[in-house]
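Quarterly update, task 2.4: guanosine-5'-triphosphate-bound model.
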Amino acid sequence: MLEAGRLLFARPCEFFYASQAITQLPEAKGPEVAFCGRSNVGKSSLLNALTGQKALARVSVTPGRTRQLNFFACDEGRLTLVDMPGYGYAKASKLLKEDWQGLMFDFLRGRTTLRRVLLLMDARVETKPADRAAIDLLSDAAVAFQLVITKADDVKPAQLDKRIAEVEEIVKKRTAAHPLILITSSESGQGIPELRAELAALALPPT
Ligand code: GTP
Ligand code: MG
């Protein structure tokens, strides 16, 4: 599967659609995987690391940069990746927050082609109430999700172990959660081949 993952992401991934409203989504065709998590957790960076394309998804200097659902087709649509706006961004206006979150949650609940949600958790930050709310929502809606720890390069091994244990505890109680937690760093490349392999297993077969 590592080789299948490498091959999938050796092929071009292209941005093809941005959606600001649930009524304006691209046609639901091939399998999709959404990148979800708190603002600044590293969603866009992870997408770039996976595809090996540094500027595919826009990385934020300030949190709350991604304000729409951005769709990327990998290897001509064998798999579609969806970069989502982050939640839990304290400085966003109330109206903006409701807009983003409404769109995000409607999408997560209603998209028939959505095969899995990657829920990203920062290695450096403890689980926040907004993360627990997202996990509850995914669980209640029975959306298959998998936890991915990001920025593993930026913590000491003991801190990483503690974070992994914390996240494992959350996942254990959730039947919609994938049992495998992925430890990644977009900076060092840790866990990227493994995540590619996970995603290749969800993609359409190569033509
Ligand atoms: P929003 O779109 O605002 O929700 O943010 P996001 O989740 O897409 O995060 P983004 O990828 O824009 O990254 C946010 C910040 O974290 C940037 O300054 C990145 O450089 C940094 N960052 C992302 N991934 C890593 C990583 O693996 N290691 C380290 N050390 N920093 C990272
Ligand atoms: Mg982003």
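Highlight for this quarter: The chain has one domain: 2-200.
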